[in-house]
Design goal:
The complex is a heterodimer of chains A (257) and B (216). With 257 residues, chain A is α/β, with parallel strands linked by helices. Chain A has one domain (7-255): 3-Layer(aba) Sandwich (Rossmann fold), CATH 3.40.50.300. In chain A, 40% of the residues lie in helices and 25% in strands. Chain A is built from 11 helices and 10 strands. In chain A, the strands form 2 sheets. In chain A, strands 6-7-8-3-9-10 form a 6-stranded mixed sheet, sandwiched between helices. A 4-stranded antiparallel sheet of chain A has the order 2-1-4-5, with helices on one face. In chain A, helix 8 links the parallel strand 7 (164-168) and strand 8 (196-201). In chain A, helix 5 packs across helix 7 (146-158). Chain A is globular. Chain A starts with 6 loop residues before the first strand and ends with a helix. Chain B has 216 residues and is mostly helical. Chain B has one domain (3-209): MetI-like fold, CATH 1.10.3720.10. Chain B has helices spanning 3-9, 11-45, 48-62, 65-72, 76-79, 82-107, 111-119, 124-154, 167-176, 179-207. In chain B, helix 7 crosses helix 8 and helix 8 (124-154) runs antiparallel to helix 10. Chain B is elongated and about 70 Å long. The model of chain B has no long low-confidence stretch (mean pLDDT 89). Classes of the chains: A alpha/beta (257), B mainly alpha (216). Chains A and B meet through helix 2, strand 6 and helix 4 of A and helix 7 and helix 8 of B. The complex binds adenosine-5'-diphosphate and magnesium ion (MG). The site of magnesium ion (MG) has 3 residues of chain A, from helix 1.
Chain lengths: 257, 216
Amino acid sequence: MNPTPAAAIEFVNVTYRINGNRTLISDLNLSIRRGETLMLLGRSGSGKTTTLKLINRLLAQSDGKVLVDGRSTTDWDVIRLRRHIGYAIQEAGLFPHYSVEKNVALVPRLERWEPARIAARVREVLQLVGLPYGEYSDRYPDQLSGGQRQRVGLARALAADPEILLMDEPFGALDPITRAELQHEFLELKRTLSKTIVFVTHDVAEALMLGDRIALMDNGKLKGVFAPAEFLRSPDDSVQPYVNAFRATRQILNSGA
Amino acid sequence: MSLPEFLAAHKREVLTLSGEHLWLVGVSMLLAVAIGVPLGIALSRRPALRSLILGANNIMQTIPSLALFGLLLPVPWIGARADRLAILALTLYALLPVVRNTYTGIAGVDAPVREAAVAMGLTPRQLLWQVELPLASNVIVAGIRTATVITVGVATIAAAIGAGGLGEFIFRGLAMVDNNVILAGAIPAALMALCADFVLGAIQRSLVRRPLRIHH
Ligand SMILES: Nc1ncnc2c1ncn2[C@@H]1O[C@H](COP(=O)(O)OP(=O)(O)O)[C@@H](O)[C@H]1O
Ligand SMILES: [Mg+2]
């Protein structure tokens, strides 16, 4: 029997090019530990989304290997791989013709769970993201606020209890108060669920607050991986602008108080 | 003789010709949908085919219907019978709105919705049947609706090649310079078009189960 590999996700010398010439990701090496929340931080256009999509094979690398649970994503059956990985995005991408209940039930239904088990799971997972089943199950996405849609998106990603969760700026389009609310709930959630989470953000504060580690990306390259405290202390040139921006915000806030 | 008198006197013929007309339109539309919807789906999968097929279809629509009937005359099995010929020509006319709307409807599915579906592990077939077709269905029905209304009208020309239908009255009336005879064909055809428009319109509206958001 294979021992469970320590890394849930591993990038080995991964390069991603489009049309054979433009390089969006170059020679990425990154190991994501089982159960950790890794924040992919970088400016927009730095290749965070591309990196995320290489994990569930929405994109296929040009070179190198991406391992999920120790197995190359090219060796996985791609449908199995994707159902094993939850995915939540900024626009939520809910099916507009499905009720909340049906949206959340999607992957368990595809996986042919028993109807009673699906119903129980939908209830449970909606509760988990703070949406009482009775009030929301019959609504359609266009009857929800942005924050509620995000919650449903998260519930849908969690429904089949995947070990890995990919989140692409899930709170990026929310108003600041709703965002703060969801960030706090996310912290709770990640404690109770202990899943491997890869979370894309361009917001330093969010990265520092939610992440166990921060992977900094710039122009398609990984600049380093830091624990939040390390990140704040790092003398690294590519880290500095982020830390400065973060400090500047805090100073303004402090001087105002 | 007034129009009501004419209609009363020719009741049987009006019914027979309406039946023929309905048959020509019905069969052509079934064929157009059976061919057009899969073709539209194929286009959404292979954008390279798009300009080719839509272009060919557009050209088809510019050929005057009478000329198209004539052009199809030499086609072996088809040319042998007037109704086959008429049905083929009507199908070709009806194809463009069906293909185009199927394609447009599928292409109009929001990118994040499609991306989430793929990322959740839907197979291409599940993506088509559970996401793309349901979300495109009202646009597809709108295409079928347009095509049906056009076909009811164009089918009157089928009488010119002896395929029957309400065009019989129209051509006869033109030859006799008798407006009543023309109207005996034109009015049932117009009613047929209105009915088809109404029924398909109702189906189309019922398919927009949720008032879909317009995305920015
Ligand atoms: N399909 C594509 N074709 C061309 N360029 C792309 C494509 N997808 C992404 N890019 C480019 O790749 C770079 C990285 O994109 P992305 O991974 O989305 O960045 P991020 O998520 O960090 O904002 C950007 O410069 C973007 O413009
Ligand atoms: Mg991005």
